[in-house]
Specification:
Aminopeptidase; 9-stranded mixed beta sheet; OB fold (Dihydrolipoamide Acetyltransferase, E2P); 2 domains; binds zinc ion; alpha+beta; 20 strands; 9 helices; 5-stranded antiparallel beta sheet; 387 residues
Length: 387
């Protein structure tokens, strides 16, 4: 057994600066029964201004240390509590901006490579090399992707960072990406093929809303890993390929929900999931409550402001609303009725209000609220995620 603390130096795009990616790798001594011990990857802070995940992984590290001492780990764990040092450095005028790369405007959680497409474009002969054995095929594909990564020449810091992460994740069986919303209840983004198989993840997390989309259109991190297998299987339906790996974006409430007691409990619940799945050999302390089943992400209404103004909400987080219910009012700041008139905003679907804004001054196109319904909405096509 070993616990490695790995630090990788990433030169910045400008002279005189560099970043450090620092993470932990728990490697238990396990019999090599299935080709390799299961590998579990967790990261936090890909959107560098979303901090609850970092504190949750701090507490998870302590739980993993304890389990390791007692010889209970049945899987490898790779833990990156601060996966985006580039975003952590983006302080301007006393304000931290961690969602978009300031150099390029790229959302740190978009435009991750489409791995199936990459393999087909770069190494099309791979498909003919596939065998009748699932594990053999898994190895062929993963080796090909690892080889492709090694052949790439990363120029910028963000490219270097991404290749370091992909190199680790491509070999993993479980990939959990910890984020948070602005002001929200716990929720999950996951591909539909993984549900309801992993309802236990939603239960342990206490996910009020589990949203499924196979391809939400932006190349978000969590979709890359299962889609590799989903897309390849469609291309070669006659060859046995592994089922998609478990990968999900776990949204731990909102920006301000960084609290010791709360996040310690979140870590304990993640551990409960790992114990339940046999990745940690330990007695379970109780069982989680059953959370709602997954719903399609295109059934979520993202209400956007059609006018600038000051918003006052008429609903609380977690409220169950009916289509037509009053969600908020926007006080007009412009025009003939400025400062006198409010514009009401109504729910466009029935469901649970799971995300609201923190700031009260909003402008045209700004997000006002997200309502998770059950029925796909005609207006929700193409790119489902926000920028
Ligand atoms: Zn995020």
């Amino acid at each position: 057994m070993s616990i490695e603390h790995i630090t990788i130096e990433i030169p910045a795009d400008t002279p005189g600066c560099s970043y450090r990616l620092s993470y932990y790798h728990f490697k238990p001594d396990l019999p090599d029964m299935i080709g390799h011990a299961p590998k579990i990857f967790l990261q936090a802070g890909l959107h560098a201004d979303e901090q609850p995940g970092t504190l949750i992984l701090h507490y998870l590290l302590a739980l993993l240390d304890e389990a390791e001492k007692l010889g209970q780990l049945q899987a490898e764990f790779i833990i990156m509590p601060m996966v985006n040092p580039i975003g952590m450095a983006q302080i301007q005028n006393h304000h931290h901006s961690g969602r978009f790369d300031m150099s390029t405007g790229l959302n740190f959680n978009r435009a991750w490579p489409d791995l199936a497409l990459t393999i087909i474009n770069e190494k099309p002969e791979i498909l003919d090399q596939l065998q009748a054995d699932e594990q053999e095929n898994k190895k062929i594909i993963i080796d090909a992707i690892s080889e492709w990564i090694d052949q790439q020449t990363a120029i910028t810091a963000i490219e270097k960072l991404r290749f370091q992460i992909i190199k680790q994740v491509i070999k993993c069986d479980v990939v959990l990406d910890l984020h948070c919303d602005i002001q929200a209840t716990n929720h999950i983004y996951i591909v539909p093929q993984l549900m309801p198989e992993y309802q236990d993840l939603a239960d342990w997390m206490g996910s009020e809303v589990t949203l499924t989309a196979e391809n939400s259109g932006g190349g978000s991190f969590d979709e890359v890993w299962p889609r590799l297998w989903i897309d390849l299987q469609r291309l070669v339906p006659n060859k046995p390929l592994p089922s998609p790996v478990l990968s999900a974006t776990l949204e731990y409430r909102g920006l301000i929900d960084v609290e010791d007691a709360l996040n310690k409990k979140d870590a304990k619940n993640l551990m409960g999931f790992f114990i339940g799945r046999g990745f940690v050999n330990k007695e379970l302390e109780g069982a989680p409550a059953s959370m709602p089943v997954a719903v399609p992400f295109d059934a979520t209404q993202i209400i956007k402001a059609e006018i600038a103004g000051l918003i006052s909400y008429h609903v609380k987080l977690g409220a169950r609303v009916q289509e037509g219910d009053l969600i908020a009012n926007i006080l007009l700041l412009d025009g003939e009725n400025a400062f006198r008139q409010k514009m009401p905003i109504y729910a466009g679907t029935s469901g649970i209000v799971f995300s609201l804004m923190l700031q009260k001054y909003i402008w045209k196109g700004a997000m006002v609220a997200k309502i998770a319904g059950n029925t796909s909405l005609a207006s929700r096509k193409g790119v489902l995620l926000e920028a």
